[in-house]
Structure formats: structure tokens, C-alpha cells
Design a protein that fits this description.
This protein is mainly alpha-helical. The chain has one domain. It is built from two helices and no strands. The chain has helices at about 5-10, 10-85.
Length: about 90
Amino acid sequence: MVEATDIEKKSLEAHVELCAERYNALDSRLLNVDNKMAELHDTINKVHGLLEKMSEKHNDQILTWGTGLVGFLISTIGYLLMNYVLK
């Protein structure tokens, strides 16, 4: 806490003026913190969006590989049936 100066102790007007300056300085600091928090919030939202896109891309890759593998297995089974079972 800021201690009162000697002039503040003797003059109410001086006290009021110094308190107004302190309040303005505090308000300025709070606005600065608020702006930084807003920037941080925006950055977090951007990172979250990028992570979601990466996750969707990874899921698409898994589906593509899975579909290819199932197709390969079905083709292999069909080939084996045609050549060894239905001969």
C-alpha cells in the first residue's frame, strides 16, 4: 500500500489529486493486463483450432489407411478363393 506523503497529511486537496493520479495509474495497468489477457485468449483459441484440424487430418489418414487395408484383404481373399477353392 502507498503511504501518504507529508503534504497529503496536511492538505485534503493534495491528497485528492495524488489519489486521482494513483487511480489513473492503476486503471492504466489494469487495462494493460486486460489487453494482454485478451491476446492470450485469442492465441489459445488459434492453437485450439489448429489442434482440431490436425486431429481431423489424422482421423482422415486412419480412415484412408483402414479402407485401403480392408480392400487389400478382400482382394486377397477373393484371389485365394478363385485360385485354390473354386478350382
